[in-house]
Every structure is written in structure tokens, then in C-alpha cells.
Amino acid sequence: MALDDRKLLVLATIVEEYIRSGEPVGSKTILNSSKINVSSATVRNDMAALEKMGLLEQPHTSAGRIPTYLGYRLYIERLMRPYVLSAKEKHEIDEQLTRNGITAENVVDNAVQVLSDLTQLTVVNTNNMPHFSVITRVEVIPAGRRLYALLIITSSGSIKNKICRLEFDLTNEQLGFFAEFVNKNLKGINIDELTPAMLQNLAIALGSYMISLSPLLYAVYELSEEFSHDNVNIRGEQRLLEAGNMDSVEIVRFLNEKQELARLLSEAFSGIKVIFGKENETFSITNSSMVVSPYRIGEAQGGSLGIIGPLRLDYAKVIPYMQYFSDSVTKMLSDILHEEHETK
């Protein structure tokens, strides 16, 4: 069955009216809301045809129609009129992305928070920045009897710390030696370079201090592993729970599955991707949608941003916002990385 211009206009009108009102859309509403100049009977025939194509469905007898997943997807790909951000909006977003200092970690964290506040939706992200970061400082601080706090700071602005309990107290000489040793051998290396093989070589290089200081060295390695794992951040979870028409148990279960969420976000290699709940096995929240976009650092993928909301999402506005955020984060992170290489 052919999809002529009028049927496409009927579909677009139903999607936009349903997003706005949340109520099934009938022929009278379509005629009042569009430039279609035909009879109600003709519009109803078009609606019936769109239903047969799987683009619309009728939730109740004698009710209007609502879009199906397929109808939403066709609307997004072919019919949607994207919102255009003003120069003022773009300037304000860029300013908020760089508040609290221009570091890679600040830019990404700010993007997640600002995007959630701007759209009033739940925002998630994965951050691969540690793979591009180098260790800038390692500190060990006495924290009590046989307790020592380890601190690692990276070029991306990330900080990890860990409390280590040893079997004996270390002398000031041992602590001084360790601080000098790790900074001499680890400062300036990429997080990913600290492998088990390198750890073993460093332990041997401790010489007579190997027995006393190896536990601290291993703790440094454990902290580096924390940097290397996919880091999933979620902001505005409450907004998803308050959105209505979604199962709160499904929401909580999905958001707690961080590895599955990271894998879903990593599937967006380029451009905007829209995923509908239950249409994808991993994304298991009924009546929901996720808009995902990657951001890059130079030629490599730096991570992904994702907006989660109801199926009745204002895609025409959310998608342009997502595109601008991912483009801005990409530019800022690439500039930061370039500056780091210039200063080396």
C-alpha cells in the first residue's frame, strides 16, 4: 500500500498531537490541526490504511489512533521538523559545559547534568576518557595505625582514592621512597599502560623495599583498573520514575544493570540513534525510548550520551539538543587533548 503525501501528513499530525496530549487522535483533531482539506471519511480511511501498515494502532474500539514503534521511527527519520537552537541557547550551553574549569571530567559531568536539567529527562553516559588520560600524580598519606590512603590524579581531572591496611607501619623513609618511586615510574604514563606485567617489573625494581611496599604498589594498580572500566553516570533518575505509564520495577532493574547499560550506549558508533523500550532486548523498559549519541576525542570514541524518557518524547526538540551537546563535547575534549599533547 502506497504512502502518499497525505497519509504521511496524517501520520505526522497523529504523532505530534499524541506527543502533545497523550490522548488517541481522531479524524476531527487531524483536520483541525493540519492543512489537510478532505472529508473526515477520507482521513479515517487514511488512518485505517496506516494501521494496516503497522504505523498506527487503535487502543480502544471507536477511539482514535496512536503511533506504533514503527510509526515513531518513520516520523523521526522522514517527517520530523527539527527544532533549531538559537545562537543564545548555544552560547549558554557552552558556558555551562565549562563551568568549574575546563577539564575533560568537568566537561562531561556538566554535559550530563545540564542536558538533564534542560530536557527534564533522565540522562546517562559512558566515559572512555581514562583510556586517553595519563597519571599526573600519586600520593600516599598515613591515615591511622597501619592505614594508608592512596590517591591517583589523572590529566582528565579524575581522582581515585583507596584506603590500604598493611600488616605493619611504614617508616617515613619507606613512605618517601615509595612516593618518589611511583611518581618517577608512573607519572606521565597512560592509565592503560599499567598492566600486570608492568606491575611485576615495578615490584622487582623496588629491590629491598619489595616486601614492605608491594601491597601499596598493587593498590595503585587496583585504582588504575577502576579508571579503565566503563564509567556509567546517571542523572535525573527520579524524572524517569515520575514520568508515568512506565513500570517502576523495570526502570530500577534497568538502571542498576550498569554493564548492560554501558553496552547499549556503546552501540552508538556514529550519529544519533533512537531505541524504543521492549523493541530492544537490552532496553527493557516498556513505553520508553532512549536517544543516544556518541562524542569523540579526535578520531576515537570518547563515550556516549543517552536521554531516557517516555515513548511520547518530543523528538523534534530532544534530538537537536542531543546533537548539539555531543558536537560541543567532542570539540571541547579534542581541544583539551590537543593542548595536553602540546604541553608534553
From TrEMBL:
GO BP terms, alphabetized: negative regulation of DNA-templated transcription
Pfam families reported for this sequence: HrcA, WHD_HrcA
InterPro entries on file: GAF-like_dom_sf, HrcA, HrcA_C, WH-like_DNA-bd_sf, WH_DNA-bd_sf, WHTH_HrcA_DNA-bd, WHTH_transcript_rep_HrcA_IDD
Stretches assigned to the Heat-inducible transcription repressor HrcA C-terminal domain: 105-319
GO MF, one example: DNA binding
Annotated ranges, domain Winged helix-turn-helix transcription repressor HrcA DNA-binding: 10-73
UniProt entry tagged with the keyword Zinc: no
Top-rank lineage group of the source organism: Bacteria
Alphabetized UniProt keyword annotations: Repressor, Stress response, Transcription, Transcription regulation
Keyword Methyltransferase: no
Function as written in the Swiss-Prot or TrEMBL entry: Negative regulator of class I heat shock genes (grpE-dnaK-dnaJ and groELS operons). Prevents heat-shock induction of these operons.
Family from the record: Belongs to the HrcA family.
This protein's name: Heat-inducible transcription repressor HrcA
Organism for this UniProt entry: Massiliimalia timonensis
